[in-house]
Specification:
- By secondary structure, the protein is an alpha/beta fold.
- It folds into two domains: about 5-80 and about 155-230, P-loop containing nucleotide triphosphate hydrolases (Rossmann fold, 3-Layer(aba) Sandwich); about 90-150, no CATH class.
- The protein contains ten helices and ten strands.
- The strands form two sheets. It has a six-stranded mixed beta sheet with strand order 6-7-8-3-9-10, sandwiched between helices. It has a four-stranded antiparallel beta sheet with strand order 2-1-4-5, covered by helices on one side.
- Helix 3 (about 95-100) runs parallel beside helix 6.
- The chain is globular and about 45 Å long.
- The protein starts with a strand and ends with a helix.
- The structure holds adenosine-5'-triphosphate and magnesium ion.
- Adenosine-5'-triphosphate (ATP) binds near residues 13, 43 and 85.
- Magnesium ion binds near residues 42, 43, 85 and 159.
């Protein structure tokens, strides 16, 4: 059984049907990417998975439990962590305090994990007592990922981690994702930067207006003429 199985998921906002029956799965240890144009339904998918938006139909099985319709805090407690689009770190709190927030449900080994995050992100270490709002865009993105890791997730969902970053920082963020993958933490990655996403992913799904129009091993999609024309330019 896969770590995450999504069956015939529908969701929307009033009259707007953002997801019209999508099915996909994430296996243990895999990086799975959802790619698609603006408005395709990528963030909606993550928000439904994390319990921020209730589906109107369909089923979500995670780590052996049917979590369909669960509240966000219960989903988080089960080990599904989301780094939302636009980061949403707390600007008036320090880097250190933001990281601690990620571990608010835990009592075990928090200090060791904090030091591990600081080892992995030397820039956050140098700025640990600085207000998060004063970090650069890329540093804030790293903080948001670090905070999610502090929850020791069983699945990490990243929504557009490279959004708005300069090319050098985009590379750094993807290096970081590669490091998390190497640790064996499964990742569901939503990205507009389809090339980078497919380079790091094991498997990918292409979303168009709320339906999955194509799927396959990421390496295969990277060679696919339709994908190249539509998403890799
Ligand atoms: N809060 C909302 N209220 C109403 N409609 C919404 C809301 N959020 C999203 N939508 C609509 O749902 C559809 C899917 O949006 P979603 O944010 O999931 O797209 P996306 O694939 O994440 O796009 P992007 O790449 O621009 O982030 C769009 O048509 C969008 O306008
Ligand atoms: Mg989005």
């Amino acid at each position: 059984m896969a770590l995450l199985e999504v069956h015939d998921l529908h969701a929307g906002y009033g009259a707007i049907k953002a997801l019209r029956g999508i099915s996909f799965s994430v296996e243990q240890g895999q990086v799975v990417s959802l790619i698609g144009a603006n408005g395709a339904g990528k963030s909606t998918t993550l928000n439904v998975l994390s319990g921020l938006l209730k589906p109107t139909r369909g089923r979500i099985l995670f780590d052996g439990a049917n979590i369909t319709g669960w509240r966000a805090d219960r989903v988080t407690a089960r080990g599904l962590a989301q780094v939302p689009e636009g980061r949403q770190i707390i600007a008036t709190m320090t880097v250190y305090e933001n990281l601690l927030l990620g571990a608010y449900r835990r009592r075990d080994n928090v200090d060791a994990d904090l030091e591990d995050i600081f080892r992995r992100f030397p820039r956050l270490n140098e700025r640990r007592h600085q207000k998060a709002g004063s970090l650069s865009g890329g540093e804030q993105q790293m903080l948001a990922v670090g905070r999610a890791l502090m929850a020791r997730p069983r699945l990490l969902m990243l929504d557009e981690p490279s959004m708005g970053l300069a090319p050098l920082l985009v590379n750094e963020v993807f290096k970081l994702i590669g490091g998390i993958k190497a640790q064996g933490i499964p990742i569901l990655l939503v990205e507009q930067n389809a090339r980078k996403a497919l380079q790091i992913a094991d498997y990918a799904y292409v979303l168009e207006r709320g339906v999955i129009v194509q799927e396959g091993p990421a390496a295969q999609l990277l060679q696919d003429t339709n994908i190249i024309t539509a998403y890799l330019g």
